[in-house]
Amino acid sequence: MFSQAILLSALVATTQARFDQEQVPIPAIQALSNFGQSGQAATLAGSSIGTLLAAADPCAKLKQADLIVSELGTDPQVISAAIGLVAAEQNFNPFVVSIPTICNDPTLPTTVALRGVVPLVDPAVGDSDVENANSATSKKSPFSNDGLSVAQVMVAQGFSNFTLSTGGSASSGAASGAAPAAATSPCVQTVTVTTTSSCIGTVTVTAAAAADTSVAAVASSAAADTTTAAAVAATSADAASSTSGAVAAGSDGAAGVAPGLIKSTIAGLDFGLCTPTIKFEAGLDGRADTEFTFQAQDPLVNKGQEEALNPNIITNRICDQLTNVCNANAAAKSACQTAKAQILALGTKDASTANAWNTALGFAGTNINPDNAPQPGLIGHD
């Protein structure tokens, strides 16, 4: 009983500590009393607290940060306090929800000095280490953000484990028979729809939204009827579950190997419909013949993901897709997370990186240049 009481006390203390995140950026705002009208900084500090509560819309804190600058000016101290608000972790209850909600309004924040800054997320969220490191970096050196929302900047830097909000409405990119709120975005989004028919049973569809298509439109289209759902499901898997074992080239120039036909040599790892290997080639997606980038080889894993100079973006995508579309088992998902950490620790961006990843998951010897691209020196670029 005594040990249980100690454990309960520790859990309560930890939970309380996480629920006080709305207080972190407030002192810096309160300290701006020398700017603006008398009492204005204190008022802004008080109203900022509400934007970081769990129930608040994440776009609200970006508007509040803009308000701080517009009312108190552009002195470096003011900008620093506003950046602190943009980067602050919003209150989060991991016992109620599993992922945070992030603003997907590309117009916010409107203050140039605040753009490209990304927020901290609760340590309980998967891949929080990646995002929290990115947040710390962005406060000192904002990320590229031209025309992008905060959510899109986060995705571009390798973190996508969140729900979207466009200001007053949230869309997780997942639906079950009903379309989420529209969230038009320059980046591809996916929608999962489950539908049941007495003829074909239950079909779960993951459909990708085109660059100018809203999540709501894709969800509505995918869920229109069971025939459409079944067709989209077959398309999403690139019709690669053929029992003939035929190998067909993917339309996106990926490995040309049907998903799931290559198995890991590590016992117990079942990657389901996918083969989670990486390639390292020059000239991908129109890049120069001397510029090497990383990309997932499996068409199902790679669907909707561009190539990347940073291998950690691709490893993060693969691990996400093992859950989202591949139906991988728990051992495979765990191995993916371990391999992802290994690649991050290596810090390399060359052929050895792709080989290390493939080997770690039981695919040693995989051809990392399946498209026979030019190989002038095999030099990775930062």
Verbal overview:
The protein has helices spanning about 1-20, 25-30, 40-50, 60-70, 75-85, 130-140, 150-155, 215-220, 225-235, 300, 310-325, 330-345, 350-360; strands at about 100-105, 165, 170, 190-195, 200-210, 280, 290-295. The protein has about 375 residues and is mostly helical. The protein has three domains: about 1-165, no CATH class; about 175-235, no CATH class; about 245-380, no CATH class. β4 and β5 (about 200-210) form a beta hairpin. The radius of gyration is 23 Å and the shape is elongated. Mean pLDDT is about 75; it is low at about 1-15 and about 170-260.
Keywords:
single chain, 382 residues, mainly alpha, 3 domains, three-stranded mixed beta sheet, two-stranded antiparallel ribbon, 13 helices, 7 strands
User: What is the H-and-E element order?
Assistant: HHHHHEHHEEEEHHEEHHHH
Please report the number of helical segments.
13
**C-alpha end-to-end distance:** 55 Å
Share of helix, binned: 25-40%
Shape descriptor reads: elongated
Oligomer: single chain
Keywords: Signal
Signal peptide: 1-17
Helix-strand layout with pairing:
Blueprint: H1 2-19, H2 26-30, H3 40-50, H4 58-72, H5 76-87, E1 101-103, H6 128-140, H7 150-156, E2 163-165, E3 170-171, E4 190-197, E5 201-208, H8 215-222, H9 226-236, E6 278-282, E7 292-296, H10 299-302, H11 311-326, H12 330-346, H13 351-360
Parallel strand pairs: 1-2
Antiparallel strand pairs: 2-3, 4-5, 6-7
